[in-house]
Amino acid sequence: MFPPYVRGIVSDPHCLRTDPTVTSCATGCGRTDISIHETFWDFSNRVYRLPLTRDTLLSLQDSHGLDANLLLFCCWYAHTRGRLDPATIQQALAISQPWAEQVVRPLRAARRWMKLNPSVQIYPASTEATMTARQQQLREQIKALELQAEHLQEDMLESLSQRAGAVSPDVPATLETQVMDAVHNHQRLLEASAVPLNDEVNELLASLVTATLFMPAMEGM
Q1: In 49-124, which ranges are continuous DSSP H helix?
Q2: What does the domain layout of the chain look like in residue ranges?
Q3: What's the pLDDT tens digit per position in 177-194?
Q4: Which of 84, 137, 158, 207 has the highest local Cβ count within 10 Å?
């Protein structure tokens, strides 16, 4: 029996992949090659291109206090390795929580504040354009630093799987197995983070599983 938030996802028989090559959930005939050996960072960049991924992660992050990189880590691990064990979950939290609190979030807060508060009205007309350009340049630099900080966080998380000796299998798991492993990983993360699994979180996690495991396969059609 599937947990509530994935029953709809796996109800389409075309979405239950049994062949090592990804099959489109839309028609059952489209094919694309998605490596199960890709790095966590490459995986994140690939799936983050989809608006559904970005919007869902922002909702889970801003409304429910969940770390977007940890949520993606659960999906990447399910895609490439399988189920996260409790010790690895705790280690992932021990790495990510202080890093996000002390590094990533302050950079993000500064970038967002500058976007909403350009303060151009306080400058004389003669210097307004110059000051606006300098503010924009600084905001772009902060954005680049924020991205670097998240990249380093993801590299640190990936190193946990190497430390634990977890490796990608020679043959990828079926899509059904990957979905169930992602469900397991998300549930363990929520439990360890003391975040309740209510209806809204259920729906958002279902969207995230769809965006990271199903929709990238359809892109290659």
Answers
A1: 51-64, 68-80, 86-99, 105-116
A2: 4-219
A3: 999 999 999 999 999 999
A4: 84
